[in-house]
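Running this now, will post back.
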Amino acid sequence: MAWIHDREHYRVAYPTALRPKLVVQGVTFEVVDISERGIRFRLGEAARPEPGFEVQGEVRFRRGETITLRGTVLRVADGEVAARLEEGIPLRVIMEEQRFLLDRNRRM
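Update: finished.
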């Protein structure tokens, strides 16, 4: 778990065991990290999308919350897709995720 600063927004990076799920057209992906305006997820066995491809789906957080998002693929590298979000993740959710991960880390 990490709180990563990138130019405009903070990112929450997830340990493998606590990753939320991104569901796009019935296909589920593991979320690697999120920010208010970005997401990175594992491609798995799905077809590799091209940069510019529109992604629309739901992120299902382990806390029980679900957020709808929409964005555009920026790049695919090392089996991970990075997308810029037009309909993003509220800062409130980013902060709650950070608290959730810190709390879970203390219990381990």
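The helical segments are 91-107. More later if anyone needs it.
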